[in-house]
Write a structure and sequence with these properties.
Porin, binds 2-acetamido-2-deoxy-beta-D-glucopyranose, UPF0311
């Protein structure tokens, strides 16, 4: 197929000169609470300092989904350079009775989220990769969760 040279040039130049940042769509803010019960200090392992922190509950709220965090576990690692590496599963329960499992993996303040659910209304979440930045909240861990690629239903 022949592509007109000017079109080809402008496509090539726009992809080189103008890498667009991925669109982000706000999904929800979540406050995860840790009441300390069941905290397990595994200690200094070959990977770093490992502590398992049970998540005792929480709340989340966004334009398309809101409800409570049921529980979860953060078995994060503080690596050999003192950087905390989050590794978490938590369960959301929406205000319309769907359970959504959330896997959150992060380094420092940057956290990656993926989702698993069987609820028809939230099926689109299974295809979402989200970025979360942490926020300081008294008495909780606050995260603002943004869907990457800006698409919503069917993402
Ligand atoms: C999280 O906690 C902060 C501080 O108490 C509050 O302002 C915010 O509304 C809470 N967010 C959610 C989703 O519960
Ligand atoms: C449930 O959450 C959704 C999304 O935030 C909101 O639009 C809806 O009003 C909430 N429903 C109830 C009954 O609170
Ligand atoms: C978002 O992702 C979908 C499918 O994964 C893709 O078809 C679409 O082009 C993407 N949209 C943007 C704006 O990147």
């Amino acid at each position: 197929m022949r592509v007109p040279i000017l079109l080809w040039l402008s496509l090539a130049m726009s992809s080189l000169a103008d890498p667009a940042p991925p669109p982000l769509t706000f999904l929800y803010a979540v406050n995860l609470t840790f009441n300390g019960a069941g905290t397990l200090n595994i200690g200094q392992t070959a990977m770093g300092r490992r502590v398992a922190y049970p998540i005792s509950g929480g709340t989340f709220s966004g334009p398309l989904m809101s409800g409570v965090a049921l529980y979860g576990l953060d078995w994060g690692l503080t690596d050999n350079r003192g950087v905390f590496r989050e590794d978490t599963i938590y369960y959301l329960y929406t205000n319309d009775s769907a359970v959504i499992m959330v896997r959150a993996i992060g380094i420092g303040r940057n956290v990656h989220h993926t989702f698993e659910t069987s609820a028809a209304k939230y099926m689109w979440l299974n295809n979402v990769v989200a970025f979360a930045g942490s926020r300081s909240v008294v008495g909780a861990v606050g995260l603002d969760v943004w869907q990457t690629n800006g698409t919503r239903a069917g993402g």
